């Protein structure tokens, strides 16, 4: 017998023959020189047993029942063996446990999500930010609603996932939740990352979503023109909350800081730069990439304005991001700006209107924004019509 093959033999245990003349039938499984016996629960007379075929003789009802059980059992054992062979871990004890359904509960998708998110949550503030964990938790909540609606049950085993599941979930997010295409792509990407964790831990052989393709579409990236930026700067607000939000947004426009990084700035983060002037030097909260920001005069004025109002060493008093964005839209409306403005618009405005339009290189902008590659920066630094006009004028002169 090849040690890489499994043999399944049905045999009669004659030494345990009962007073009625019936002997119990056992199944012997042999693999890699190891042998295990399991009982079938059936008994039969020795003259009705075909030793060579491993089957009961005749067409009596008990013989038919015994033979059906033997064939089904052999088929099930072979299927379980092939599964374990693919997993690269054939173990007879585990095979028998799986056969009887003991101590074997295949990992489900929601179990995987909870395992991933619980581990992720423990690392907030160490490796990851709360906002990143929150995205995975929202994904969990969406799947908790999708699976019962689509499959009529609360969960699904990882081994039962197919590429069709990803396609159905993609459509559900667009049709039921009215998510935009790029938002859906982000959810699918995060789901793929979690499935890769299952592959790494040998809970599945390969991800069923690998071949599911979903790519981002180019969208218009909102930023403020110089005229719009001036409109906000020149607008006065008597309400303290709007005046503060205006200053925070302008600070983003002149530093390129993400809101989460700005909210955590301390006096220790403002240091003398290589030129002796004040710089903000931090590691970004989201990516842990070093960001160096020489402070422009308008940014310094905002810091000076709130110096006397500081609590401890926190540079600027900040609202939670939801309130900030809500108040920011109020400012946009009052300033006559017909755009959906969020904190991220300030970061893009710095990259596009303040920096790129004034001749700052994409490499320098990338360093200030704390990007790991300039490829990411290109998404922020949109080539403006003004820049096109200026460079074409230069070309006219040369021609």
Could you explain the architecture of this structure?
The strands form three sheets. A three-stranded antiparallel sheet has the order 1-2-3. Strands 6-7-8 form a three-stranded antiparallel sheet. It has a two-stranded antiparallel ribbon with strand order 4-5. It folds into three domains: 6-100, no CATH class; 109-200, Orthogonal Bundle (DNA polymerase, domain 1); 226-398, hpI Integrase, Chain A (Orthogonal Bundle). It has 399 residues and is mainly alpha-helical. The mean pLDDT is 87. It starts with 5 loop residues before the first strand and ends with a helix. The protein has helices at residues 61-87, 92-100, 109-122, 130-151, 163-175, 181-200, 226-234, 240-255, 259-263, 297-305, 321-334, 343-355, 362-369, 374-380, 385-398, and strands spanning 6-12, 22-31, 34-45, 49-50, 55-56, 270-272, 278-283, 290-294. The chain has 15 helices and eight strands. The protein is elongated and about 105 Å long.
Notable features of this structure?
mainly alpha, hpI Integrase, Chain A, 50% helix
Question: In short, what is this structure?
Answer:
The chain has 399 residues and is mainly alpha-helical.
Oligomer: single chain
Overall residue-averaged pLDDT value: 87
* Count of the domains: 3
Based on DSSP secondary structure assignment, what is the total number of beta strands? Answer: 8
The stretches of 5 or more residues where confidence is low (pLDDT under 50) are none
Shape: elongated
Secondary structure: helix percent: 40-55%
* C-alpha-based Rg, rounded: 33 Å
Q: What is the second-level CATH architecture of the largest domain?
A: Orthogonal Bundle
**Main sheet summary:** 3 strands, antiparallel
For the terminal residues, how far apart are their CA atoms?
85 Å
- Structural class of the helix and strand makeup? mainly alpha
Query: Given this structure, which CATH class of the largest domain is correct?
Result: Mainly Alpha
Strand order of the largest sheet: 1-2-3
Q: What is the CATH fold-level name of the largest domain?
A: hpI Integrase, Chain A
Secondary-structure element order, as H and E? EEEEEHHHHHHHHHEEEHHHHHH
CATH superfamily membership of the largest domain: Intergrase catalytic core
Number of alpha- plus pi-helical segments: 15
Beta-strand percent range: 5-15%
